[in-house]
Amino acid sequence: MAVVAVIGxxxxxxxxxxxxxxxxxxxxYVVRYQGGxxxxxRVVHDGGEFSFHLVPSGILFPNTTCIIGNGVVVDPKALLxxxxxxxxxxxxxxxxxISERAHVVxxxxxxxxRLEEESRIGEKLEGTPRGIAPAYVxxxxxxxIRMAELLDVDAFRxxxxxxxxxxxxxxxxxxxxxxxxLEEIHGExxxxxxxxxxxxxxxxxxxxDALSEHKTILLEGAQxxxxxxxxxxxxxxxxxxxxxxNAAVGAGLPPRCIDRVVGIYKAxxxxxxxxxxxxxxxxxxxxxxxxxxxxxxxIHNGRERRCGWFDGVAGRFIAQINGLDAAVITxxxxxxxxxxxxxxxAYSLRGQTIHSLPAAPxxxxxxxxxxxxxxxxxxxxxxxxTYDELxxxxxxxLKRLEEVLETPIVMVSLSPQRGQTIQIQDILAEPTYDxxxxxxAFK
Length: 443
Prior knowledge:
Strand order of the largest sheet: 9-7-5-2-10-1-11-15-19-20
Radius of gyration: 22 Å
Number of helices: 12
Cofactor: Mg(2+)
CATH class of the largest domain: Alpha Beta
Catalytic activity: IMP + L-aspartate + GTP = N(6)-(1,2-dicarboxyethyl)-AMP + GDP + phosphate + 2 H(+)
Shape: globular
CATH topology of the largest domain: Adenylosuccinate Synthetase, Chain A, domain 3
Largest sheet: 10 strands, mixed
Protein name: Adenylosuccinate synthetase
Active site: 13, 41
Binding site for IMP: 13-16, 38-41, 128, 142, 223, 238, 303
Distance between the termini: 20 Å
Strand content: 15-25%
Number of strands: 20
Helix content: 25-40%
Structural class: alpha/beta
Number of domains: 2
CATH superfamily of the largest domain: Adenylosuccinate Synthetase, subunit A, domain 3
């Protein structure tokens, strides 16, 4: 038995879906603990290509139970569409459960998300207009609607009526838009609740029972840690906590039960949308190599991702604040053709060398990366199945990343395809220690 929190350790798109899919073969439960359908996890194998937005990436294995935790905000229509698509691809979704405490993304959340972004003066935050932020606002303002409430037709109507009066005042009086219909929303969302009825459960009890039965549980984050609401590059962040500390809360588990925290890093850095990115590559030829070889386009809409060299300052900050026990490096093969590769090991901020991530966005935007250059391997790594087979220069690069991150690398991915992964240490190995905070357990 092991409980392992898997987090994205950069600005997202690190390959969490592939890694969780690989690990799910031996997992009993996979739990999404935060975010909404603004996530986009991709899994590729011989059976086809699958994209997950709300459903945990472990759903492809018939013996794995998947849970959407209480920390997730659920768009029920998007979830039903995703389940229908998976069923059309031959996937059994009867093993998916949704926490009855998970909050619901409502129609007024979509409207307010769009209107608030349009009303911003200056630089836009460029979030996905899926109602995620307003849903989290309502959760913390104690005006949210939870999955359990969709199942009681009268109580749902009474609460929705009260909330919608407030939301319609904002929509009509502040933004000058037409009011939303109570009857339409109530009828539509009560129907969604009935369609999802068999999936809504007391998932906290399910997971506590799983702990008592010594099951293996994976906790899957949705967005990268540099988008965390507290410790990310605020305000260019997501609306929930993406950190390992939130994995237990968002899943409904005791914090002490987490045996291991694993961070996923790309072998380089990418980012979608606005916000500081110190190691961004502005040489179009080099950036295009990474973008085309790495297929760096957003799953949702095909937008280009900004590409940069590995940011060791930001990476080490995330390793430290999450107490990473291990790191996984993905897309190492994308660097196969490069003669030299850069690693950012420090920043220069207005003439001063710093080794930490500034909190103020203007300071981070002013940071200039201080690079080390390492030799590229300029050979094809696809098909390599063991660490020893890697070119010497590739192993040297990984070793330097370990030193910069101060975290052991336990897995290396060489392709989006399932199985194209080198396992150096067993992430799901049975813990052999008595304490519940096994820092650097793989060393």
